Amino acid sequence: MTALRFRAAVVDDAEAVVSLVESAYRGEASRAGWTTEADLLDGQRTDPASVKALILAPDSVVLLAIAPGDEAPVACCHVARERPGVAYFGMFAVRPAMQAQGLGRSLLAEAERMARDAWGCTCMTMTVIDIRAELIAWYERRGYLRTGERKAFPYGDSRFGLPKRGDLRFELLLKDLGR
Q1: Which CATH number covers residue 65?
Q2: pTM of the full predicted structure?
Q3: Of 1, 9, 22, whose CA–CA distance to 68 is shortest?
Q4: Which residues constitute the domain of residue 101?
Q5: CA 160 to CA 46: how far, in whole Å?
Q6: Burial of 18 (0-12, 13-18, 19+ CB in 10 A)
């Protein structure tokens, strides 16, 4: 999809972002796409207060992809400058019925370009649930490397969902953005 328009979210977009993220990862509706976590987690993926905090935080952008003729976002992500030269990529979602059309690839490329050009970042990091092999492979095809560094899943913190398994953890991926 070549005619996507990108823009930074504003506070009034928080509900639409939450709806998009939840639709891509939680519940039966998320099964229409390939990014679902419905077999791994119940509960919420995010909430309006958390999204508003990301929108308002310094060195943080919730980036929206808008399709022609549609004002609601079809994809979103969060990009934050973690420290000089390093950006973090997260909260990545594409409408389930619109997945596998190149929207995610385009939004990821825009997020990388923004981090490199606006903030001078040379590295993008992210964390992915390490048993999500198909998702990790998708990122690897886009130049991300597995580091082998793992972080504990926040069991007991319902803000991150309600785990259906006891073996969840995150793996750190990174990509050299060059200059």
Answers
A1: 3.40.630.30
A2: 0.91
A3: 1
A4: 5-176
A5: 7
A6: buried
Q: What is the pLDDT along the chain (179 residues), one digit of tens a residue?
A: 458 899 999 999 999 999 999 888 877 777 777 777 778 888 888 899 999 999 999 999 999 999 888 788 999 999 999 999 999 999 999 988 888 888 999 999 999 999 999 999 999 999 999 999 999 999 999 999 999 999 999 998 888 888 999 999 999 999 999 85
Q: Give residue for tokens 């995610």.
A: 104
In the chain, the number of structural domains is: 1
Please state, in angstroms and as integers, the Cα–Cα distance from residue 43 to each residue in 6, 46, 124, 170, following that order. Answer: 29, 9, 28, 18
Token duo for residue 128: 């992915």
Q: Which letter, b or e, does each residue of 107-126 get, where b requires 16 or more Cβ atoms within 10 Å of its Cβ? A: bbebbbebbbeebebbbbbb
Taking a C-beta distance cutoff of 8 angstroms, is the pair 75, 93 a contact?
Answer: yes
Q: What are the tokens at 36?
A: 């679902």
